[in-house]
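Hey team,

Filing this mostly as a record. A colleague (T.K.) asked me to run one chain through the structure pipeline before their review meeting, and I want the input and output archived in the tracker in case anyone asks later how it was produced. No errors, nothing strange. Just documentation.

Input sequence:
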Amino acid sequence: MSKNSTEDKRLHPRCACCSAQTQCLLFSQIPVHALSCIQAVVQVTRRPRADTIFREGEPARGFFIVRSGWAKVFTSRPDGRKAVQAIAGPGHILGLIEVLTGSRLQSSAQALEECEVEYVNAAEFSQILATNPDLRIQLLEAAHRQIQNARKEFVDLAAAPSPAP
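Output structure:
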């Protein structure tokens, strides 16, 4: 259920009916007109379990929004092991910082189960940013809040008592 039915009328139908609205960084932080511009260029794909969504070190050609399902975000260690950084679910945005900063992807993502993922091409997104100058700052601020929340969850998890043997 969305926050405001008048906003729904201006949103792309895919966004207006999305069940991940309440968790989505874009929906909760971005003005409706900018969100509608982004939704107009979104490509939606279904990714099967164990499918690689993107690979660490590749150029950030776009960013991803998890609509449904769960994905593992990880980095590869020199010894070949994977260091899990996050488990991304509905509403999580992956690769946005790298797109905004023009850097290479800092991690990889793999579907833990079948996922529906939205993809926003970096070139099309750049055109949207050019016509919405405040959007870059709003997105960086929202991404910062998402990172802070993830950091807090990590600290809470680390501080939790371990189960008895």
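Quick notes for T.K.: The mean pLDDT is 83. The CA atoms of residues 108 and 120 lie 17 Å apart.
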